[in-house]
Request: fold
Amino acid sequence: MEHGDRHITVVDEDGNEQLCEILFTFESEDFGKSYVFYYPVGAEFEDEEETEVHVSAFIPGNGEQEGELLPIESEEEWEMIEEVWNTFCAEQEEEVE
Reply:
């Protein structure tokens, strides 16, 4: 996965692939990582309460090698991600009004 890509393929623990739409990416200087919010293609992202949105840390690909999704490792990371998500949702609400 590269910054700026719009889709990623996520492989679950059973080896099943699912195409997902990237909602947005961001970088955290505090944690030194990039993060991506994404949801399954076909799920309409109109109401965040009804759409299952996932978030992962990621290592971008370099053209020769695919990027890699990584799990969120700490409670501090989850707190930071929740703040970013709340800011994103507030900005989306302002755009609608």
Summary: The first helix runs from residue 75 to 96. The helical segments are 75-96. The beta strands are 7-11, 17-28, 33-40, 54-59, 68-70.
